[in-house]
Amino acid sequence: MKASLSHNCILYSLVSIFLLLTICQIVALQQQEIYAENQNNVSSNNITDIEAFNPTKKIKIVLEDTEIEIAPGKKIKTWAFNGTVPGPPLRFTEGENVSILFVNKGLYPHTIHFHGIHDDKNDGASPFIMPGKSYTYNLTAEPAGALMYHCHVPPVSEHIRMGMYGALIIDPKDKPLKPAKEYYMVSSEFSTDEKNVTKFLADYYPINGYAYQYMNYPLEINQGDTLRLYIVNEGITIPVSIHLHSSIFDVYPSGLLSNEPYQAQSIAVAPGDATIVEAKWRYPGNYMFHSHGFQEEHGNMGKILVKENNNSTKLTKSVSMFDWQYDLQKKLQKEN
Q1: What does the alpha-carbon distance between residue 91 and residue 170 come to, in Å, rounded to a whole number?
Q2: pLDDT tens readout for residues 66-88
Q3: Are 95 and 141 in contact (CB under 8 A)?
Q4: Residue 133 and residue 42: Cα distance in Å, rounded?
Q5: 90-93 and 165-171: which strand pairing?
Q6: Separation between Cα atoms, residue 80 and residue 78, nearest integer Å
Q7: What is the pLDDT of residues 245-290, one digit of tens each?
Q8: β-strand 227-233 against 181-187: which pairing, if any?
Q9: Global pTM?
Q10: How far apart are the C-alpha atoms of 191 and 202, rounded to whole Å?
Q11: Do the strands 319-320 and 181-187 form a parallel or antiparallel pair, or are they unpaired?
């Protein structure tokens, strides 16, 4: 009797092991099929679709695992587009065909998801771009306004907190905006705890990746001229409530130029949303701007220098300060 029970136990164990190995093999095969399908998708979008798409502009974005400085003497590990957090500001004209080559030099799968209108192959939710692989996104720039881009591999909140995001600005094609001096602002969140990157309360809430940078390098505008701010919130937890001192300003809701602007004293921007602000100052001087509340005490604050306009000259065309801002960001984030 005991021998029979022992024999049955051994037989049961062998069958269980066989079934477990079979299940593992099936799962492995399914994963290989998914990976192969992803790579086939990568190949087809990189070759066939580009030729048919006929882009007028081509851009390359490289993802790298790196380390950047986010405040004086404070460095963190990041997953960075082109070596910076946020990544480079992208600016196109409405209706323009753009091809963006994404190269993943990191250790994990990644994508780029662009806010706006496009088909599923260029949405950035799939396929996942594996380490060492590349993918080309073909976009027709629309709609006009302040948008954003970011990684969309789960957990998305972790990939965003690690630095994979940037501003996407699309200028209107047929309805030029009034002359203004233009700046972009990407509000975001950094955790210095590598074991808890997505903790609810972050340690820093910088603008354009470096805490308080515009306190030392203020935005500048002449008295009476229009300052235009393209603001996106790439945080994952709480809104930013943008307030400009000594000004009541015009706001384009959700950053879309198709929306009617309204006047505001502060404007709340939820995570994943945007706004466009147009402001003027009656009096020259140094004025603060910041997110009203907790974030301003953790990096989200700067200055606007309003210069006296003795000659009463006015802007006759818009002036973009994007290059100045991105050069400053790169300089600060790479400081030793």
Answers
A1: 6
A2: 999 999 999 999 999 999 999 99
A3: yes
A4: 9
A5: parallel
A6: 6
A7: 999 999 999 999 999 999 999 999 999 999 999 999 999 999 999 9
A8: parallel
A9: 0.86
A10: 5
A11: parallel
